[in-house]
């Protein structure tokens, strides 16, 4: 079994990253000399993903230009831009993009600002796929242990026990959600195209004890502000020197 489709969420204004995002989608900001979006696509291509949907609204012309570039540089993959006339957030943006996905198969759903490094023993998306093969869940998260985040500040929004994730509403959890997950379209049927957060869907699965997760063994960085971006870029430069 493989997962050959994905959606990358890239429509938001990223207000905490201003002024860098005044006229630029956050996923096109560079880390280590490449746009965040390119790092994500490289991870997906390594898993033989054949179709990638990117949703867009803010500064969308930059995304259109990027997708033209991606078609040339990743000829084995199809890229589709899911345009939003108004911001639909992560939940509504996904529902709006559903017509571009195979509704009978799972897909990777990744926030456009996710930046991570694989563990030496296994690729991060591969670890999600291996767990997906063993589970009956329809939503599987990649969680980062807070204790491993020594650069950007962690937010303990989840706990994890026996592969089942539970949201920590007071942010005292041992794990932080990476914005990387696998989802099956069957749990999305009841949702309309309107502005709402994907967190609503996650919370519903949580309430039914059906929200599963993988403990990420690689590195993941929470890039929320210009200072975060500078710190991560400086760290990468130190590593590669």
In short:
The chain is of the alpha/beta class and 241 residues long.
Write the SSE topology.
Elements: E1 5-9, E2 30-31, E3 34-35, H1 36-46, E4 51-56, H2 60-73, E5 78-83, H3 89-97, E6 107-111, E7 115-117, H4 124-134, E8 139-145, E9 158-161, E10 164-167, E11 175-183, H5 199-207, E12 212-215, E13 219-221, H6 226-240
Parallel strand pairs: 1-4, 1-6, 4-5, 8-12
Antiparallel strand pairs: 2-3, 6-11, 7-13, 8-11, 9-10
**Class based on secondary structure composition and strand pairing:** alpha/beta
Helix-strand topology string: EEEHEHEHEEHEEEEHEEH
> Any low-confidence stretches, pLDDT <50, length ≥5?
none
Helical amount: 25-40%
The CATH first-level class comes to Alpha Beta
Count the E strands: 13
Percentage beta strand: 15-25%
Can you offer a commentary on this structure?
The protein is of the alpha/beta class and 241 residues long. The chain has a single domain (5-240), classed as Spore Coat Polysaccharide Biosynthesis Protein SpsA, Chain A, CATH 3.90.550.10. Helices cover 29% and strands 25% of the residues. It contains six helices and 13 strands. Strands 5-4-1-6-11-8-12 form a seven-stranded mixed β-sheet, with helices on both faces. The model has no long low-confidence stretch (mean pLDDT 94).
Defining key terms:
single chain; globular; alpha/beta; Spore Coat Polysaccharide Biosynthesis Protein SpsA, Chain A; 6 helices; seven-stranded mixed sheet; two-stranded antiparallel sheet; 241 residues
């Amino acid at each position: 079994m493989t997962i050959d489709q994905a959606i990358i969420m890239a429509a938001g204004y990223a207000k905490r990253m201003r002024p860098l995002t005044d006229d630029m989608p956050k996923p096109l900001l560079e880390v280590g000399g490449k746009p965040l979006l390119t790092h994500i696509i490289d991870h997906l291509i390594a898993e033989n993903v054949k179709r990638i949907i990117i949703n867009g609204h803010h500064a969308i012309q930059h995304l259109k230009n990027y997708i033209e570039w991606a078609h040339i540089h990743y000829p084995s993959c199809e890229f589709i831009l899911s345009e939003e006339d108004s911001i639909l957030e992560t939940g509504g943006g996904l529902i709006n993009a559903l017509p571009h996905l195979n509704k009978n198969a799972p897909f990777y759903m990744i926030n456009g600002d996710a930046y991570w490094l694989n563990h030496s023993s296994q690729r991060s998306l591969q670890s999600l796929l291996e767990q997906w093969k063993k589970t009956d869940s329809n939503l599987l998260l990649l969680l980062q242990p807070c204790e491993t985040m020594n650069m950007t500040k962690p937010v303990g929004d989840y706990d994890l026990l026996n592969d089942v994730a539970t949201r920590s509403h007071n942010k005292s959890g041992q794990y932080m959600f990476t914005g990387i997950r696998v989802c099956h379209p069957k749990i999305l049927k009841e949702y309309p195209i309107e502005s709402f957060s994907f967190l609503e869907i996650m919370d519903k699965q949580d309430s039914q004890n059906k929200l599963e997760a993988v403990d990420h063994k690689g590195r993941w960085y929470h890039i929320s502000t210009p200072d975060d971006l500078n710190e991560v870029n400086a760290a990468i430069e130190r590593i590669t020197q």
